[in-house]
Write a structure and sequence with these properties.
Blueprint lengths: L2 E10 L2 E10 L6 H13 L6 H10 L3 H13 L1 H8 L2 E5 L16 E8 L5 E7 L6 H30 L14 E4 L2
Helix pairs in contact: 3-4
């Protein structure tokens, strides 16, 4: 069972910071519903979310207690999966930028940049080589390319038809230019 951790820039206690949106079993959720979930979470107050209230409460604890909680979340598999997620997703594409190699407590972070004039997107997978080998990361990116070029693309076309939008796409495998890197 996977848990995606989508990092969102949010105002937290009057400051700008990253706030995680955790989605359990994202592969079981249709794209339209995922989109609604992400937009709802971005617009909602952090105080309205039980997880948000926990994050704020933990951030107010003294440093030794916060470190103890981090240690538990990082070293107890179930807490890690449900508290932090099994992988992260982050992007700065809306600012026409790409992320370089990122440091994260997760074993891997998927990021992507803006689409170019041909609709191609550069995808980067930063991963912890202590957890899995680069060959596995390459297979993951290859499989992601296949899924994006087939079932996800088909679902996007269906959504576009329902909403009356035209989607310019190409189904040429490999066009997402996957890039695996390790911290």
């Amino acid at each position: 069972e996977s848990t995606a951790c989508i990092l969102q820039e949010r105002e937290i206690l009057g400051d700008i910071g990253l706030f995680p949106l955790r989605i359990r079993k994202p592969d079981d959720i249709p794209l339209a519903e995922l989109t609604k979930m992400i937009r709802r979470a971005a617009d909602a107050s952090i105080d309205d979310s039980p997880f948000g209230r926990v994050v704020v409460a933990v951030s107010r604890l003294p440093l030794p207690f916060r470190r103890l909680l981090w240690s538990l979340c990082l070293n107890v598999p179930r807490l890690r999966r449900h508290g932090l997620g099994t992988y992260g997703i982050s992007s700065v594409a809306r600012w026409h930028s790409e992320l370089g190699t990122s440091r994260t407590p997760l074993s891997c972070l998927l990021s992507y940049g803006p689409a170019d004039s041909e609709g191609k997107v550069r995808v980067r997978l930063s991963f912890d080589h202590r957890v899995f080998d680069g060959a596995l990361a390459g297979r993951v990116l290859s499989r992601l390319d296949q899924v994006l070029s087939s079932s996800i693309l088909a679902e996007l076309h269906e959504l576009a038809k329902l909403e009356g939008h035209f989607v310019k796409t190409s189904t040429t495998p490999g066009e997402h230019r996957p890039d695996a890197s390790q911290p």
